[in-house]
Design brief:
alpha+beta; three-stranded antiparallel beta sheet; elongated
């Protein structure tokens, strides 16, 4: 082992000397700095690999005698050393070590693995960290290609996808270890918000075989499963009038004095089947939001707000899991319905349509929801609407009637509560759409949930803490007390 260590150190010295000579010769040859920079990087990777090999050699082969005791059995040292592959950020190396087992071909214990803290898979924790950070930002293919180019490694798409699912296993346990934000950094209003976003799924093999290559008329190339997306954040009150809101919407820009959300945490949950039992993604999401709200306000000193669109299933879950919350219907969905109603009577883009919307929006913001509903009904009957226009306007009226308890905007504005669910829609876009709806992307439930869980941790700013948790959890499972 001493010879192997010296060999590694000699290789490192030789590479370093080559770097010195490269710089000296590059100056004489008048080379561009970027060319020299690339060559130096290659030498640095070679130095790192040689030094890592020296470190491994210096640790020995893990020989601790002829036998070792493990729990209630005695393991004997196998006759020949066993090698395992280790892929570091500097390159791949093979680690030869002594293995103890009851019999040959039953690898049970390798003391050197515990001594070095080797991961369960072939890939180093550093490489796993870097690769998965790239995977949650962009496609697997882009991540693999980028890291392979940077490090000169022979990585493949399947390894990246498999690694993604393995790394995601402890995400739920990690969330339970997270401490709530400091009270001094929180606003007096705690906001929960939820929405749904479709994820393109792979068709089951049996279904693809049944339908054949050619799809039937009206059949889509892929199915989507809805991911329940939610967020919890705190915020300071922002008191406004109806005119303030209308002015802000007309200018289509954020008010400079509007407070910003604090410690925004996002999640996304798909409906999954575990041990033959189906677990609803929406229910799981509301459970997570309820737990987050409790941890951040255990004494219930803050005002709890639930801000969503008009999906009845979400409001039913709100009653069950966040019963004390002030329910607020997202104003932008209300506004979209107003524009649809306006186009039943006026041309799109016309001043009349804009006046129609502005007048009724002001009434809604002033708490006159009943007047707006009644007025729309009268207009529908006075104009004797038929066909599609009548169905469209009736749907808008029904939407307002169903959600009327969550449309007390005069009270919300006076109290300074938020009335727009931009955070939820932003989470749907950043968390789901930007990563899982790329061209040609299709997912299994397991793969999509793994990506959503890891991407949420990344967007929440908890990546480094999670990777540390992942390493400690795996080391403890692999080596127990020896992991320390």
């Amino acid at each position: 082992m001493m010879m192997a260590k010296e060999t590694g150190l000699l290789k490192a010295r030789a590479e370093f000397q080559a770097m010195i000579e490269l710089v000296q010769q590059a100056t004489k040859d008048g080379r561009r700095i970027d060319e020299v920079e690339r060559d130096l990087w290659r030498h640095l990777l070679a130095i790192g690999l040689a030094m890592l090999q020296a470190f491994v050699a210096d640790a020995g082969d893990g020989d601790v005698g002829e036998t070792i005791e493990r729990e209630d059995e005695r393991l004997r040292r196998l006759d020949e050393p066993h090698a395992r592959r280790y892929v570091s950020i500097f390159g791949a190396l093979r680690i030869s070590r002594r293995v103890y087992a009851v019999r040959e071909k039953q690898l049970a214990s390798a003391p050197l693995d515990a001594r070095l803290g080797l991961p369960q898979a072939d890939f180093s924790y550093v490489l796993t960290d870097w690769l998965q950070q790239a995977c949650v930002r962009g496609s697997f293919a882009e991540a693999v290609a980028w890291l392979a180019k940077m490090l000169g490694l022979d990585l493949n798409l399947h390894s990246a996808e498999h690694m993604n699912q393995q790394v995601a296993v402890p995400t739920e346990a990690f969330r339970q270890t997270q401490r709530p934000p400091k009270p001094s950094e929180e606003g007096p209003i705690l906001v929960t918000t939820a929405d749904c976003k479709g994820v393109p799924m792979r068709r089951p093999v049996q279904e693809r075989a049944r339908h054949g290559v050619r799809r039937r008329k009206g059949e889509k190339a892929n199915k989507k499963q809805m991911a329940a997306v939610g967020a919890v954040y705190s915020i300071a009150p922002y008191v406004r009038t109806a005119d303030d809101v209308i002015d802000e919407l007309a200018r289509r820009e954020r008010a400079a004095e509007r407070p910003r959300p604090q410690h925004k945490h996002v999640w996304a949950e798909l409906t999954r089947v575990r041990e033959g039992e189906e677990f609803s993604g929406k229910e799981r999401l509301f459970l997570e939001m309820a737990l987050e709200a409790h941890h951040r306000d255990p004494q219930r000193h803050k005002v709890l707000v639930c801000l969503m669109d008009g999906e009845l299933a979400l409001w039913q879950l709100q009653k069950e899991w966040l019963g004390r919350a002030v329910g607020i219907l997202d104003l932008f969905h209300v506004l979209e319905r107003l524009w649809v109603a306006a186009y039943c009577f006026h041309a799109e883009g016309s001043d009349d349509a804009e006046d129609f919307v502005t007048h009724r929006l002001r009434m809604l913001l002033e708490g006159k929801v009943g007047y707006v509903i009644g007025g729309l009904k009268r207009l529908r009957d006075q104009h004797n609407l038929r066909g599609e226009k009548r169905r469209t306007l009736t749907a808008t009226i029904r939407y307002y009637e169903n959600n009327r308890p969550h449309m007390r905007y005069d009270e919300y504005l006076a109290a300074g509560y938020p009335i727009g669910s931009g955070v939820a829609e932003g989470a749907c876009r950043h968390l789901v759409k930007d990563r899982l709806e790329g061209t040609g992307m299709r997912w299994t439930v397991e793969g999509a949930q793994a990506m959503l869980s890891l991407r949420a941790i990344h967007l929440n700013g908890d990546w480094d803490a999670f990777i540390k948790h992942h390493i400690e959890t795996e080391q403890s499972a692999l080596y127990g007390q020896l992991a320390a």
